[in-house]
Fold this sequence. Notes:
Layout: E1 3-6, H1 16-25, E2 30-36, H2 48-55, E3 61-67, H3 75-81, E4 85-89, H4 96-105, E5 109-114, E6 132-136, H5 151-164, E7 170-174, H6 181-188, E8 192-195, H7 197-200, H8 205-215
Parallel strand pairs: 1-8, 2-3, 3-4, 4-5, 5-6, 6-7, 7-8
Bound molecules: D-xylitol-5-phosphate and zinc ion (ZN).
Amino acid sequence: MVQIAPSILSANFANLWAHVAQVEAAGAEMLHIDVMDGHFVPNITIGPLVVQALRDKSRMTFDVHLMITNPDQFIGEFVKAGADIISVHAEACTHLHRTLQTIRNHGIKAAVALNPATPLTVIEYVLPYLDMVLLMTVNPGFGGQRFIPEMVEKIERLNTWRRERKLNFTIQVDGGINQETAPLVVKAGADILVAGSYIFGAADISTAIRSLRERCG
Length: 217
Ligand code: DX5
Ligand code: ZN
């Protein structure tokens, strides 16, 4: 069954826990936490202090998406703050294999995120070290952007790799996910749907989450 990971980027930051509590109550499996540094992406969001503050209240799996340069420097801080999964961008890692091992050595799950223009081949030799692959279906930095349709084929190809190599990492997609795009990516092989504006911008959060699940059968 597809898992739903609401992205807090589109939550109300002035009333963050009240908004996040609604997705937890609505049965979201994961909380997707977008960390941006103003260098790797042209936007700045939150750091470990906010993750820690939410961790004290929430039981959801914390899925931390690091859109930062030099992620190695901050892995320990985010683990301490309560991350269960950390995604680093392949484009930001000079020694990706080492970075993934660092994450796993902290006893949490390791994932790689790929920008839309980055080929799958950059992760070919680290697949056994991955618990999850995050395929960006928009260019990272902002919520509310349009899904890039060419990414469907990329998801299919990664799903084929997974099957052929008998691996069991999960495939997460992030960007432009809504009622129309969700069934396309799930059919292509996605297991976890990140959705920011579609969920936090909805009049009724639990209806939005339910509609994503229902559309994916
Ligand atoms: C974009 C972030 C996403 C973002 C998705 O850089 O990684 O997680 O919040 O937002 P939507 O679902 O609105 O495209
Ligand atoms: Zn994200």
